[in-house]
Amino acid sequence: MSAYDHDFPAWGDTAEKNWKHCLARPFVAGTFVWAGFDYRGEPTPYGWPCIGSHFGIMDACGFPKDNFCYYQSWWSKKTVLHILPHWNWPGREKQKIAVWVHSNCDEVELFLNGKSLGRKGVRQASRLMWKIAYHPGILLACGYKKGRLAMKTVTETTGVPHGIRLVPDRPRLRADGEDVAMVRVEIIDRQGRLVPTADNEISFLVGGNARIIGVGNGNPSSHEPDKAARRRAFNGLCQIIVQTTRQAGAIELIAKSKGLFKSAIRLQAGKTFCRPTLDSAMIERRSSCCARGK
Q: pLDDT for 18-39, tens place per residue?
């Protein structure tokens, strides 16, 4: 439930230990994971001010957690190579930091600022770990399959927050009064890199034929309202949900925050056939007919 998979309730277990238990027993069909998403209530294993669970493979906004990549590496055929944690640790220079890698490659070699920290073999259903003295820069992981380079991934020290990036799940919606766009909101530095420690408050404005129906940031200890036009970022991210009206046309979403360059995107709501509905006059006429036995 933590990024390092250390904290778990007495009646539960870590993802790695649980899955190894299943693999060692061919008669076991699978495992039970509680839950797919974080949710309000059951703030376990942490207490107040935490108000939500930490059980999810994804947080309440659907942002994947680090363990998402653990499951993906052993439950899918996709090549996976994921480094954690982020590499923004000002004030902790030269201190040792545990760096984990989730991967289904045969071997992984880790580099810090171009210097190899060693190559390690990957055991089934396991993850790799290096203890590294922190120096700002670039962590590079290279994954090998059958001796050949299969994948590279990088995490690097970023600059300070500079702007906002809006990433909708799709650009076109239905103008049916029900369709929604889930918009990922990122705090980025001058080079366009996500700043993983940013917590800037962002305000939103929607113009055109749409309305804001919710905001979130995936923080289980956030007490901010979910029905609002502003939200503080958590680990550099937050989310806004925009819903269409029944009028087709362009939708403009603007996000801004004090000291940051604002961002704007344009979505399009297209004409569509709405589901048949009964308006109040029709309901009243039908009720009157039923009362008369017709």
A: 999 999 999 999 888 888 999 9
Strand partners, 251: 208, 267
- What CATH number labels 64-157? 2.60.40.10
pLDDT, one tens digit per residue, over 108-122 is 999 999 999 999 999
163-270: CATH topology: Immunoglobulin-like (2.60.40)
171 neighbors 268 (Cβ within 8 angstroms): yes
- Please tell me whether the peptide bond between 49 and the residue prior to it is cis, using omega within 30 degrees of 0: yes
Q: 124: Cβ–Cβ under 8 A, 6 or more apart, which residues?
A: 23, 74
Sheet containing 115-121, strands listed edge to edge, beginning at the edge strand earlier in sequence: 115-121, 107-112, 138-145, 148-156
DSSP 8-state class, residue 53: -
Tokens 């650009």 found at: 171
Query: Can you give the residue ranges of every domain in the chain?
Result: 1-63, 64-157, 163-270
CA separation for the pair 237, 165 (Å, rounded): 10
pTM: 0.90
